[in-house]
Amino acid sequence: MEVASVGVDLTPEGEPEGSIYKRIVAEGPSEDKPHPNDDVYIHYTGRVVGQEEVFDSSLDRGNPFKFKLAAGTVLRGWDVVVPTMNVGEKAKVTLDSRYAFGTKGTQRVPPNATVEFDMELMSYCGEDITKAKDGGVRKNLLKRGHGFVTPRTGATMTLHIKCLCEDRVVEDKEHVFVFSKSAGGDLPLLLTKGVISGLSSMRDGELARFVVQSEYGFGDEGCSELDIPANATLVLELKLLSFHNKRHVYEMSFEERMEGAAKVKAEGTEHFKAMEFADALKCYRRGVELTESEEVFKNDQQQLEMSQLRLLCLLNCAACSLKLKQWSDAKDACTKGLDVDPENVKALYRRAEASLGLNSPDDSIADLRRVLEKEPSNKSARQRLQQAEEKQKALRNKERNLYSNIFARMAAEGPAPKPEPNLFDEAQMKLDAEVAAQMAKAEQGAAGAAK
């Protein structure tokens, strides 16, 4: 409803009519309107309706007032009115006390007062989503999503990306991918590290604009694949069409865990064959995570099946870690494997190799001897044992030589010289002895008097 004197009624549905009015005094030159969570800058002058006295004005301070829109940090009426304003627009706004200062008022506004503001929207910018809060990536919420769940790492996501660079459309298409909080991998190229943090807070159906400065985009190298020049600012419109979060392990049944673990184990094996050991290790570790016992099995047979699959994933983790020379991780994986099967030869052998890498031949020898007890004809174990014993001998010789050199040097230097007498200490000792003698004599005298 519009009344000439007060303007358009912006009262939210379900609230008493006439609680918020806005009358445009001067149209803004732009059609851009701010959105929730944007940082907005306004000038305002406030009066109680029917009074000439100004109770507050940003003009007196000389700087526009800044606040985050729809964050509940200002008058309720402002959060309703400002999203309807264009940049440069001037308006007279009338607020009932319910949307202003309420029943308590302020020092300069009486309780239950209706107030009016002369407001001008100077500018706005998207929410700064960078950790450094340096404005490198700003997010404008164009359309709210629904629900409260947001994407987690591992979610299967369908996302429409439209990217503008220097007023040129770089890309405008839909992507389906597995979400990760690290740039690269299977993620679309335009999802740089600076954008990912904003994407992880989006809800299903949400539409948002991201303004990405070059240092959070492709920097001074640009991206030849997308024809993006160096030091370019990007404007991305992202619409989250759908996503399906990967379920937490504790939410999964025995069958789901076993199926998932078998799948990632197979993927890991493909990576291992391609000598992509780091990627293979990630897969096998996921398999270990899925087969951690949380009493999900219904019988001994299920427990046995899960234990066997867990052991295979742990052994493969160890194999990858050995290839990557991550000796401690390899040894840890083997030790966990031996918790499942204390006599497993592969676990013992690979732990022995890890111990050698850690320069611990004693531990390596102990595991290799256990391997040879079970498999006396294991040539690899026998060769490794010989290497470990040679390393053990070399280390002991090194220690022996070290101590021999220390003792030889001590012998050559001769006995340590006696300390020079300290005259002060001798005088103090003599004085202490005299005092002690006098005290003993005094005690004897006291004892004789008592008799």
Explain what this protein looks like in three dimensions:
With 451 residues, the protein is α+β, with helices and mostly antiparallel strands. Helices cover 39% and strands 21% of the residues. It has helices at 76-81, 193-199, 254-273, 277-290, 300-323, 327-340, 345-357, 361-374, 379-413, 423-450, and strands spanning 2-3, 7-9, 20-26, 39-48, 54-57, 65-68, 90-95, 115-125, 127-128, 137-143, 156-165, 168-178, 207-212, 234-244. The strands form two sheets. Strands 1, 2, 3, 4, 5, 6, 7 and 8 form an eight-stranded antiparallel beta sheet that branches. A hairpin with a 3-residue loop joins β1 and β2 (7-9). α3 (254-273) runs parallel beside α5 (300-323) and α8 (361-374) packs antiparallel against α9 (379-413). The N and C termini lie far apart (118 Å).
What does this entry show, briefly?
The chain has helices at 76-81, 193-199, 254-273, 277-290, 300-323, 327-340, 345-357, 361-374, 379-413, 423-450, and strands at residues 2-3, 7-9, 20-26, 39-48, 54-57, 65-68, 90-95, 115-125, 127-128, 137-143, 156-165, 168-178, 207-212, 234-244. The chain is of the alpha+beta class and 451 residues long.
Distance between the termini: 118 Å
Poorly predicted residue ranges: none
Rough shape? extended
| Sheet/helix structural class | alpha+beta
What is the radius of gyration computed over CA atoms, rounded to a whole number of angstroms? Answer: 39 Å
Which bin fits the share of residues in helices?
25-40%
Overall mean pLDDT score?
89
Number of helices: 10
Order of helices and strands: EEEEEEHEEEEEEHEEHHHHHHHH
Instruction: Count all strands and give the number.
Output: 14
